[in-house]
Amino acid sequence: MSAYGTGRRASWVRDLAMGVRFAAGGGREGWIRTALTALGVGLGVVLLLGAASVPHIMENRQQRSDARLPAGSSAQPAPSARTLVVTATDTTYRGDHISGLTLRPDGPAPARPPGVAEVPGPGEMVVSPALKDLLGSPEGALLRERLPFKTVGTIGAPGLRGPGELVYYAGRTAFPAGHTGDRITGFGQNTGTDPMPPLLVLLIIVACVVLLMPVAIFIATAVRFGGERRDRRLAALRLVGADSAMARRMAAGEALFGALCGLALGGALFLALRQLAGLVTVWDINAFPADVTPVPALAALVLTAVPVLAVAVTFVALRGVAIEPLGVVRNAEGRRRRLWWRLPLPFAGAALLLLSGGPQADGTLPHTNWITGGAVLFLIGITVLLPWLVEAAVARLRGGPVPWQLATRRLQLSSGAAVRAVSGITVAVAGAIALQLFFAAVQGEFVWSTGQDSGRAQLDVSLPAKDVATLRRMTGEFRATQGVRGVIATINGTAYGPGSQRDEGHIPTTPVTVGDCAALRELAHTGPCRAGDVFVAKEGSGMVVGADAGSSARPGARVVFHIDAATGEPAGRTRPWTVPESAREVRSRPDPMGRPDFGIFATPGALDPAALADPSARALIRVDPRVPDAAEHVRNTAARLDPMADVHALQDFSRDSQFASVRTGLLVGSTVTLALIAASMLVSTLEQLRERRRLLSVLMAFGTRRATLAWSVLWQTAVPVALGLALSVVGGIGLGIVLLRLVGRPVLTWSVIWPPVAAGAALVVLVTALSLPPLWRMMRPDGLRTE
Amino acid sequence: MTPPGALIEASALRKAYGPTPALDGADFSIHPGEVVAVMGPSGSGKSTLLHCLAGIIGPDSGTIRYDGRDLTVLRDGERSALRRAEFGFVFQFGQLVPELTCAENVALPLRLNGVRRTEAERQAQEWLERLEVDEVAGKRPGEVSGGQGQRVAVARALVSRPRVVFADEPTGALDSLNGERVMDLLTDAARASGTAVVLVTHEARVAAYSDREVVVRDGVAREVAAAA
């Protein structure tokens, strides 16, 4: 190392240290500035550390989820001291999923689910803390009816994916008739995770970039808080002999101190907030504090990158500032923002994205680094284009009323702070538009229509049944349930015909549906129907799918309901039943589940369901949406009829679970990022107001109306925001098109670009509204007092 | 004793900032067209007196009458309107709006009073010429010298033809030559238009431009006997 090199390094260290001392010992003003910077950086650091914890959170949730899965095998194990018979008894309460497992131990030492100290005895249950709270609260009254077990314990963290999860294990001596359950030897499976489709991987990469870029911008903005006062102080240092480079290094030292304070504050806030992680549920996700632990490598990256960013940003920011020994610092004369180096950045980003090649035919996504780099470069390009755009646009603004003139002149003189305040939202909206375009184009591959018609019925209840009495009881109870407007109740079984293929190993079968005329009309175009009628329902094509129409589903066909499973021959005591010659052939109609029912449709007067083998009762229920908790009342009725009744809510659409997870993750991230951007804009606005407090006081002393000043502040924010949102629309569409070209999909809809723009605009309105009270307080002429 | 016909008449003003009293029973008066210097050492309360007289802040007790109206009972909006229409201000560092040109700064009080932009800027140009700084009309405050900036501030204070100009250390940041020029222009223009000037200063040289001197010490204002 040369002496020059050593000397240069020493002067760097000395000047940075001096800057740190100025920031630390700068009196009240200095501390306010450092506090603002630390707050800004700290908020960003909290978010970055939170993002760095996501892999741990997801991994631990998955591990605990796997650990409580019943350990099964294809062959049922023999009963032993450790084995249990289990059946899933999940339910839903006011939109929240409740995982339930009913257990019946075979012996004295049954395997215990994770987090459970003792397997609950008959009539008892152990519950998660969140479920315990819910059951103990007035809000859980309806759920208490459904789970009439005595709570004897609480499930510990090892048995829960998150602290807010609703889980229970209930004990029984026997299962209700018709329910057999599965015998298991213990708990824990290694399900592994299905590899993500490359489309989703691409989506996740871009989403991470889109969500974290505003955070980086926010941190970069925060380290420049109070820059004007700092520059004046540096000018004074120039007067006593500091050269320009030294002044810049001292400025960097001040920023470094703020960033280090921010790191400390962010770390402390992160540690404090992670204790509250279990209390907050965002889009159905919550986590144990212990899970919220950053991946060490990512945490190290944050700890290193933030101070480096602080120093780098300060040097870049001071490029356009001439720190002179006398007077206040002035922007270097005639230094206009240049387009030539800004414009290529988004194009370079787009090129990098396209060159990555995207997902390959073999289902892989090579060059993920190129994709990350391309997305980052594109969004950085948007960020650096914004100051140029604002400068170029406001330079053309002239005249107007006083507030407009004050605002536009301010932006013409120095738009940097205003632009910095909105650059985060610009990038976030641009990224969100791109992601929305991408989502809209690919969601057809991950979201599909179920064929269910939630307009005709909202709940589908299945339970074992054996006779007409069950059918009548079920129908009656559901019809009497609060909020129920219609019930399609049937009992279903199977009829076996003596078909010609029996000898070839194929037994002709026909579904049998027993229900009253009102129910049968919902499932087939029966026309006139009376008690005692029988119908043969066919599909539109005239076929009875899956049945041998000629032998089992035709008027006059002889069928049996019980057969010997081994031989396929009619079981000993069964008596054949003949489809009446009077049975009319009718066209089937899809039920609300979207399934075309077909086969033999009989009213109870014609066929006693007790004759069927293993019949099941089914009710499709329509509820009145205006009646609160109507669905919960239905579920409670179902639980009363059969504690293990399967209740399914109809959904018109279904989503791929991985796609749904990515979308949920994006919503969580967007919510947190938008909150940070709001905080960032608010702090930036307050900082700008603080810098101009004395000028505001002078203007007030002239008798300037507060409304005049408020409007000028509003315009000063609104103009860059409008330009930023316009740029984000163009940039977002550009990035979206590039991403879609990468995966070979066309843009399906343009309407999705507006919600992010609206969200961005709403955020700005919110922040502006929040900044008005402090603005009002600062607009006092007594701010002139200096002594 | 206040002479009859006073434009501003204040009596027994008290004002404290926390435990620190700034004014402690101060009396003051000024007549139309009169230039009164308020003198005193740093921290004596002279700026606080000026701020109270101008309705910028309210006293804790005492009365201030302007043209027969009690300033202390006026609401904030009414005091703002009064300052906008009847008062002008010059501060130590000019306190020009940095983003506006000098001409726009001078035109600002007129525009706040609803005068159209072209007319306001025409009048501003006249005042800039009168104060011999018309050459900086299109420049921003950051691009002009301290003396020029202060003359622009004087033009801004006088452009709306106020009945009173409040000048708080108007030459405090200027060298003696520039200070004298600013004072010449301010007092000449004020006298020519019949504008009263409340001139806060700690420099006897500046106070010499006044018709009368009031000394504030420990929050109490006392009139200095006129020199023979």
Automatic annotation (TrEMBL), chain A:
Domain ABC3 transporter permease C-terminal: 207-319, 669-780
Main subcellular location of this protein, as a coarse class: membrane
InterPro entries: ABC3_permease_C, Membrane_comp_ABC_pdt
Taxonomic superkingdom: Bacteria
Biased composition (Low complexity): 70-81
Biased composition (Basic and acidic residues): 582-594
Transmembrane segments: 36-58, 199-223, 255-277, 297-318, 339-358, 370-390, 417-439, 664-683, 721-740, 752-772
Keyword Ribosomal protein belongs to the record: no
Record organism: Streptomyces natalensis ATCC 27448
Swiss-Prot/TrEMBL keywords: Cell membrane, Membrane, Transmembrane, Transmembrane helix
GO cellular component: plasma membrane
Entry's localization field: Cell membrane
PANTHER family: INNER MEMBRANE PROTEIN (PTHR30287:SF1), MEMBRANE COMPONENT OF PREDICTED ABC SUPERFAMILY METABOLITE UPTAKE TRANSPORTER (PTHR30287)
Membrane topology, from the record: Multi-pass membrane protein
Region (Disordered), start-end ranges: 62-81, 96-115, 571-595
Name of this chain's protein: Membrane protein
From TrEMBL, chain B:
Gene Ontology annotations for the cellular component aspect, listed alphabetically: plasma membrane
Residue intervals of the ABC transporter domain: 8-228
Pfam families reported in the protein's UniProt record: ABC_tran (PF00005)
Keywords: ATP-binding, Nucleotide-binding, Transport
One of the record's GO molecular function terms: transmembrane transporter activity
Keyword NAD set for record: no
SUPFAM superfamilies assigned: P-loop containing nucleoside triphosphate hydrolases
Protein name: Macrolide ABC transporter ATP-binding protein
